[in-house]
Amino acid sequence: MADAYWRYADPRQQAPMAPPQPAPLKRPRPDYGGAPETLGYYPREDERTVHLSIKDTEAINASYDRYLQNGIPSYSTAELVRPVGGGLNGRPVEDPRLPGIGGMDNRIIGYSGGRTEAPLPPDASNTLFVEGLPANCTRREVSHIFRPFIGFQEVRLVNKDSRHHGDLLVLCFVDFATANQAATAMDALQGYQFDEHDRDSAYLRLQFARFPGPRPSGGPRNRR
DNA sequence: AGCACA
């Protein structure tokens, strides 16, 4: 503290010799500013600061988790999401269990466990329809809940006015990369109490959205 | 119960 005070007390004269810890540490260009997929996932200015805090290891871990769950590297996310509303409406997209890697699915950590081996319902989609949100909740709050889940892409809040009481109620739609990942988050957050003090009103109810077309990576044409 | 965005 003495050093700081001394420096503060004598600002007019700059020391001719370089201090032991030179301040200019900034690079001219941040080469590791973020993975290309990160830029695609966070196009808004609100979350632009997020990619600065993402370390390389985190990006690798996320990719590895997605790889474990889907067997597909995460850098080609555009190929994962297809327009489900087209011709696939009646049947499940694919059999989620693969013959060879059943043993690896069992040791998936964290939120991604449990659902990977269960077959998806026929109406499954990669978008979740969430109700039971308190009227004053923000998009940032909801994003905090869903962001840790693997495959999370975006959350969209919708304000609806209740028919009976005139209350403002909030719905939201949450996009995931795959329907399987959406199902994982749905199971984990079903009945989640948004306000822990008010046990009656605020608990989440999640379903698969009816019309999932959220244009995940820019455009309805996803055919490669 | 309730389903929007392109």
Automatic annotation (TrEMBL):
Record's keyword terms, sorted: RNA-binding
InterPro entries attached to this UniProt entry: Nucleotide-bd_a/b_plait_sf, RBD_domain_sf, RRM_dom
GO molecular function, one term: RNA binding
Domain RRM: 126-211
Region feature Disordered, mapped onto this chain: 1-41
Keyword 4Fe-4S appears in the UniProt entry: no
Record-linked PROSITE patterns: RRM (PS50102)
Statement: the UniProt record of this protein carries the keyword Phosphoprotein: no
Annotated protein name in UniProt: RRM domain-containing protein
Organism expressing this protein natively: Dendrobium nobile
